[in-house]
Amino acid sequence: MLRIGSTKGLTLIEVLLALVIMGLIISITLPNFNQLLESVDQKAARRQMVNLFNKLQRKAVTAAQIEKVRIENNRLIYRNSAGEKTVFGRGMQQIKLEKGSNPLSFYPNGSSSGVQLLLITNNGNKIKIEVDKITGQTTVEEVK
Length: 144
Prior knowledge:
Layout: H1 12-63, E1 67-72, E2 75-79, E3 85-88, E4 92-100, E5 104-106, E6 115-121, E7 126-131, E8 138-143
């Protein structure tokens, strides 16, 4: 038989308890999520810089012209042959020129002016990026 009025629902205490548990879970995971987002931004910025250097080296060789990228106000600034400006370095607090010249130049023979950069991320991590003078190859290293 079907009883009318015998269906059970959630009490107010059960609903409040579920909300408290969900709040605790969110408060524990939210800081980790923010750190994850910062880490993703930093890795993307680092990858973007390395890709820029590799692209400029290839472009210098194929177009047989010198390609340059400048360090200004803790950003890498690239101007293409049409004069359009592209800025790289989101997620970086500071970009220090440790060795080499500013601007960094890539030459038609595949070499570069050579540079060693120290990137300091927004959360204080240090990354060393080096562009070899002879080969123009880029290496990345975490600094402790």
